[in-house]
Fold this sequence. Notes:
Chain A is α/β, with parallel strands linked by helices. Chain A has helices at residues 3-23, 27-52, 57-79, 85-109, 124-152, 165-186, 189-207, 215-237, 240-263, 268-273, 281-287, 298-306, 317-322, 325-337, 356-363, 374-377, 399-402, 453-463; strands at residues 117-118, 121-122, 310-315, 341-346, 371-373, 386-390, 421-426, 446-450.
Amino acid sequence: MSANLSATFYLVSGILFILALRGLSSPETSRRGNYFGIAGMAIAIIVTFLSVGNFSSGFIYVLAFLIIGGSIGAFIAFRIPMTAMPELVAGFHSLVGLAAVFVAISAFLKPEAFNLGVIGNIKIASLIEMSLGVAIGAITFSGSIIAFLKLRGIMSGAPITFKGQHFINLFLGLGIILLIFYLCKTQSSNTFWTIVAISFFLGVLLIIPIGGADMPVVISMLNSYSGWAAAGIGFTLENTALIITGALVGSSGAILSYIMCKGMNRSFFNVILGGWGATDQATSSQSKEQKPTKSGNADDAAFLMKNASSVIIVPGYGMAVAQAQHALREMVDALKKSGVKVSYAIHPVAGRMPGHMNVLLAEANVPYDEVFELEEINNDFANCDVAYVIGANDVTNPVAKTDPQSPIFGMPVLDVEKSKSVLFVKRSLSPGYAGIDNDLFYRDNTLMLFADAKKMTEEIVKSL
Amino acid sequence: MEIDPFIFRLSIFILSIFVGYYVVWSVTPSLHTPLMSVTNAISSVIIVGAIIAALASNSNKIFEISSIFGFLAIILAAVNIFGGFLVTQRMLQMYKKKKK
């Protein structure tokens, strides 16, 4: 296949990828969008086979490895519980990063296969592109592994900070850039390997200071990195499909990071410099000694909600941990039967990744047109009888609106306290991930339901 | 003077960033998780590089060091392609409208 023809087909697959993302503008078109994406990928792979045109025994191995990897991927895709999506996505990011590293290494070791020159005399532009690709890929890989371990709970979600951390990161980052210049001058393979090694190390250092509650930003950021790594390799291989995709994924991840940061009213740098939640908020929660709270049981909650005319459900990460989404949906069904209007309110940073709560509710067969974003529903709390807060905490804290001293001041929150009564399902009065006390617990119109989210919801269903 | 092909690729890259910017802003927030999994799947188009790397060697020596890296990258990218698209499909299947 001629180079021009294959370049045209790569362009087609790039366009199909754009359409795949475009489809996600509404759930109705999203499934068709996914087929566009699959078609784009199939075209890219087939065109690559045809343009290499090497159907020797190596080709059999390529197919075999493709099938092995594909089966592993398919197995994971069908088996993974929806609550584990954040870990899965982090894991997948690490694979993209590592694949980018491997392709770049291969290109460095055998540049003639990619028309980049010969060993010891690789084109300067290609060297820059491939070393940028390899560096970003390696950072994506090791950073995603850390994110994966934190999300999976294998590693503590607490930020790991030490003195001079940011200077070390800056130093390593500058070091990589200097080494790339050096590599262009010397073409030395040792320099190349050093870049790879430092980048792996930097990926780890970049993610360890970021706390568990900031994981939505981290995942989006790594998503973005994986795109830039792909684009870097795309430039090296002079491949349009890879360049287009890399740009799409890179900007997608960047936008998601921005949305997540805005959801917490924090700057991007504030998040990546990390350390939030481990600071001195512990002292402020000690100063607030025992304040009176009202607590109730499932029957009280059932009574309140049955006699309400409208109920808003506020789910958070705790719902995912307790796997309470199915019980929740049963409760809502029972309420709807007795004529209560029920809707769901989702904060942009609820859960551990963008849109996490929406997927869990969809899994429990909650129709997506009953689920609303913060801006759409926030005014409705004033007219609602009961707000049922299940597994959310910081995103409902009125302190964000009133106390300029609070670390979450200015963060957009759900105006839960404006509803006539608030049912707050929580295991204890412990503060949320931001490490601050929630004022809502002590309000007159709040009834605390101290229990596991799933158990409490099931009990409410029973007494309904 | 002839224009360096690099400039053309750079143009494609920058225009794609703009396309990505506008397309992604129009994605509904409730589909942000599928957005991440599908971007994950499509970024594995890096497999084209892996295939070229794997098939670069001449047929009498299939596994030399550079092609081994290519084969490893094929496995990783394939996990991502199949896993990414299928898990996206599985999620999108669950989004349903209210009955009636």
